[in-house]
């Protein structure tokens, strides 16, 4: 099958188009013929080797972290899906590979594709949808009437998270994207090029940070006592190290890397946690129901042909996308 592959870590090495074997399926796997995949900043970080200590992939590696397609074959113990089903998925972190014509995924990471969406639209949802769901509903335990700040509201995670929150949403974006943010449900849009959000906003229950660095630290100031700062750009914290069963030296490193932000959070009487989204077919089913009910719609910036996967990665790396970038594979 055709695929886009990383042979060696590093930005300069890029990805190459090549032939790879169609994956074999285990008894609890579904083999999916991929029709579309979406591109995420995570793909570039994996390619560059930023996660090689946390996610020790065997090279050559097929990139790609979410997809939509048709079930081609199922393992002997699979009960939820049959060949011909239209599905979408975020593969488990140790079995990525959506930039290809086929992928084998464990049944419990897969869900039926929302009927109202095209393959390209559905492929844009899994990673950002699960990230927003697990951050706001799982970790943030967002309730009706609470206030949540979502950074980079015009990005892939942001455009989904704004719609999911729906209670009272503030978001940071550029002035050029303000109208889109309001269409998606944001009540307040801060122009990050002109205004300091930490001087304008206060008494928020939850902040979802997609930026890290200085933005992460300034986010502490907008939270009320007991508020929650959830970061998906790092730094990883000791709880994350524990969840992934990291060896002692990685646990020590993560404790050190997150010490400053955890200490600052404690000083503000709030909490900080790092979220690395996990695959979950049941949650994708819940997201599909919201989409079919019209509560959430995909936001797609551009669709690239499969042969231009390298260009799609480069476009996402500019950091200027509005919503998701998708690769049409079939």
UniProtKB/TrEMBL annotation:
Gene3D superfamilies tied to this protein: Medium-chain alcohol dehydrogenases, catalytic domain, NAD(P)-binding Rossmann-like Domain
Protein keywords: Oxidoreductase
Domain of life: Bacteria
Protein name (database record): Zinc-binding dehydrogenase
Pfam families registered for this protein in UniProt: ADH_N, ADH_zinc_N_2
InterPro entries, sorted: ADH-like_N, ER, GroES-like_sf, NAD(P)-bd_dom_sf, Quin_OxRdtase/zeta-crystal_CS, YIM1/Zinc_Alcohol_DH_Fams
CDD domains, alphabetized: MDR_like_2
Occurrences of domain Enoyl reductase (ER) (ranges): 10-327
